[in-house]
Design brief:
Layout: H1 2-9, E1 24-26, H2 30-40, H3 45-55, H4 86-103, E2 107-109, H5 113-128, E3 139-141, H6 143-150, H7 158-175
Helix pairs in contact: 1-3, 3-6, 4-5
């Protein structure tokens, strides 16, 4: 998320806010938000929302919760998605389905792979088959998928290529990354 924020704020990538036509909400993963707040003293909830709002028309955004730290778990955490506890996982997920329905959003952005799979493949399947009501819900995307979907890709001039190489090299140096020379 820090890298996406850096790329957007520095203009290294440009986003088209007209490509998404659905209403959008953000799910806050337990590890990325609540656990990060406890362990690191900061959470990614606000940053996630900022990135999303750089990708869409802000009028399409629907908030799921009053504070990212108060958002509910999707039910897939603690390894539940990968374990054979489908009934329990879906039961816990009903609270998330209710939250999604209340937003009226069609598209849910879930930065975490477990959360994305639970909402898309677990809750979404239940919704599609009429066993769970998620309102207008249609799809779940990773945050990076949304950014990639909205990315404006134009051919670069030689000057832009040189500037990008310089920015890459500066980033590698700042992060202490040493690349092997090609032979």
């Amino acid at each position: 998320m820090d890298l996406l924020e850096e790329y957007i704020t520095t203009g290294r990538i440009t986003l088209d806010t007209t490509r998404v036509h659905e209403t959008v909400t953000v799910h806050d993963p337990c590890n990325y938000v609540r656990k990060s707040q406890m362990a690191l003293g900061d959470h990614m909830g606000d940053k996630t929302r900022w990135i999303v709002k750089q990708c869409i028309n802000p009028e399409l955004y629907r908030e799921m919760c009053d504070d990212p730290l108060n958002n509910f778990c999707c039910g897939a955490g603690g390894g539940a998605w990968a374990m054979p506890y489908t009934e329990e996982r879906l039961a816990y997920g009903r609270v998330k389905a209710d939250q999604i329905r209340a937003t009226g959003a069609e598209l849910v952005i879930a930065p975490c792979h477990n959360c994305r799979d639970q909402i898309l493949k677990g809750l979404g399947k239940e919704h599609a088959e009429g066993r769970m009501d998620m309102g207008n819900y249609k799809e779940t995307m990773y945050l990076w998928e949304l950014v990639a979907h909205c990315l404006i890709v134009e051919p670069w001039s030689e000057e832009e290529i040189e500037a990008a190489h310089a920015a890459r090299d500066a980033q590698f140096e700042r992060l202490g990354i040493v690349m092997e020379e090609e032979e």
